[in-house]
Amino acid sequence: MSDKEWALVAPYLTLLHLTLLPEGAGQREHPLREVFNGLRYLVRYGVAWRAMPNDLPPWHAVYDQAQRWLRAGCFEMLAQDIRVVLRLAQGRFQPSIQRLDHAVPQEA
To answer: Which of 20, 73, 74, 100 has the smallest number of Cβ neighbours within 10 A?
Structure first.
């Protein structure tokens, strides 16, 4: 992961650290960037958790942190903000609104 990519993702994964770690949790044993790299490896290559290579953090560290990120909605927030940035770059300032009234049966 490049430094630019990490600079984009890190705020979503690190600013929520107070809500992601249980009370009394110790210091992190593995840097979050390495844990995120482990998750990226897992998603990219479709390997089983326990089949992660040894140059990444242990599978259980990656799994546990990924579960905390998922519960906190980190990836949803990241995707939503990227969507807004892309819309602004395209000159589309308002979110798309689909008209659903045609799908609702009209009473006679």
So the answer is: 100
Q: Distance (Å, rounded) from C-alpha 61 to C-alpha 32?
A: 10
Residue type, 102: H
User: What pLDDT was estimated at residue 84?
Assistant: 87
- Please spell the DSSP secondary structure of the chain, one letter per residue: --HHHHHHHHHHHHTTHHHHSPTT----SS-HHHHHHHHHHHHHHT--GGG--TTS--HHHHHHHHHHHHHHTHHHHHHHHHHHHHHHHTT--SPP----GGGSPPP-
